[in-house]
Amino acid sequence: xxxxxxxxxxxxxxxxxxxxxxxxxxxxxxxxxxxxxxxxxxxxxxxxxxxxxxxxxxxxxxxxxxxxxxxxxxxxxxxxxxxxxxxxxxxxxxxxxxxxxxxxxxxxxxxxxxxxxxxxxxxxxxxxxxxxxxxxxxxxxxxxxxxxxxxxxxxxxxxxxxxxxxxxxxxxxxxxxxxxxxxxxxxxxxxxxxxxxxxxxxxxxxxxxxxxxxxxxxxxxxxxxxxxxxxxxxxxxxxxxxxxxxxxxxxxxxxxxxxxxxxxxxxxxxxxxxxxxxxxxxxxxxxxxxxxxxxxxxxxxxxxxxxxxxxx
Amino acid sequence: xxxxxxxxxxxxxxxxxxxxxxxxxxxxxxxxxxxxxxxxxxxxxxxxxxxxxxxxxxxxxxxxxxxxxxxxxxxxxxxxxxxxxxxxxxxxxxxxxxxxxxxxxxxxxxxxxxxxxxxxxxxxxxxxxxxxxxxxxxxxxxxxxxxxxxxxxxxxxxxxxxxxxxxxxxxxxxxxxxxxxxxxxxxxxxxxxxxxxxxxxxxxxxxxxxxxxxxxxxxxxxxxxxxxxxxxxxxxxxxxxxxxxxxxxxxxxxxxxxxxxxxxxxxxxxxxxxxxxxxxxxxxxxxxxxxxxxxxxxxxxxxxxxxxxxxxxxxxxxxxxxxxxxxxxxxxxxxxxxxxxxxxxx
Lengths: 312, 346
Prior knowledge:
Helix content of chain B: over 70%
Radius of gyration of chain A: 20 Å
Strand order of the largest sheet of chain B: 1-4
Largest sheet of chain B: 2 strands, antiparallel
CATH topology of the largest domain in chain A: Rossmann fold
CATH class of chain B: Mainly Alpha
Order of helices and strands of chain B: HHHHHHHEEEHHHHEHHHH
Oligomer: heterodimer
CATH architecture of chain B: Orthogonal Bundle
Structural class of chain B: mainly alpha
Strand order of the largest sheet of chain A: 6-7-8-3-9-10
């Protein structure tokens, strides 16, 4: 069985056997409490860390000296006003952009530019701010394409139906069906992805990223353009994905209300600089954040609701 | 593109393989008995060759999304390669020459596919023009390719498989039909395989495809190779079975455009579409000349025919692009669904 090494021994297990997927956790952390107790992961070395990342386009500074560390198994939000550099940061982490300065450390290895082609092998998956589904493929095949990087059979074997191609397809389909079930997408399994409503397409993209059971999941505005109920549904799915697969999640989101409830830690960007970093409550009370991003508000309680409504 | 799943919705009563099997049975069992030599020479042989070329281009352009204007060059490469293998390697059977010719075309396809790693869309289309001009130039310039024939026009070798001559119109038709059926079946298997889905993924969103770990560069070159292989074999059929001469002039830019129109009119990203489009392209001029002759009499000479052909074809392409971007296949599926629905509700 041709596998990425980190996934050895994991492939044959069901998606519904979470304890098998508890990789990247410190040895002491049991799966049972890791889902509930994030502090267990506190001691761990960061799965992802950015050191002094700088990026500019021409004269425009998109990112300036950004440090960020993401612990295994946490949900890490990056927020900030439009143009703060959030998407640039995700693009640096996923290797779409090459930073001018600094280093991305991923599971111990350092990169000046993360190799995009190898991203899936490194256990990193991402979604895109604007939908990036394959419109001409069914939902099933879109999600199954998340496993394409594991395919070792060549086209001749696939055409003739010989060699490992059959087994690979069977394996990919069973995994895909489990993920579709998990994200409540089984009903649209055979629809063309391009024909689905927006909210569902967003969820299909999440499924495509999750199907390979990545260690690190990058979500670029997973809830953009959604209704309030779709947003809370999506937040539930993100949380469930983390709890079940022990995936570390880095997400960008505009809706502060959703982010506060969902994330373990939040980093706030403004004009390409990190102005705050901490637990939701710390960030909520940080004066610089309030000034720079949330606007001046005297009542902290009303704040998140206001911003949630305003949809910043 | 709806054409890909068209099959799923189109035949709710019958299994999917019924229609092709019946069609093949008809093509093998009935057509050779009753077809006239005009039907074979003027309609079915060019139809089969162009259909196969359409299937090949559809893999590259329809599925993998790489626009190419070099199809005729790959046809020429296939035809001349098969001619030379046949000429220079005495013991090589015909099938061997054809397969090797396909590989030669595939190799040329890979070379001219290299720009696709950096270029997209319109720019790529222009760069594939290089293949068109280069291959035609090389075949004209170096008379070795045409065995130093003075005119550059050479007779294709006689078709025979295992000592069994396929010289007559029916024989050449059966030969072409067999080659086209086999390659079409393999192409169909390919586009529904993981590799075929990778083609579509790259067409629909290259960045996302790269991020999820699809080897984009390899897959693009593979699309060029497979597509050129099929188009090269189509070139062999065009030269050996249909025209029975091999000459560079028959594989000019017009031919490349013709094949591109076939897949646009027939339906991008659809194997069946290539056959629909080729049928229209082959039958349409014949029909037009009959109709013109019937309506206008002597006024409708070959000059007028040629002109009106271009005008109507141009108009058709514009109409299809606007009204039915998924081509004749989508049209056909819709009509069939309506009929089926009407039939079921009575």
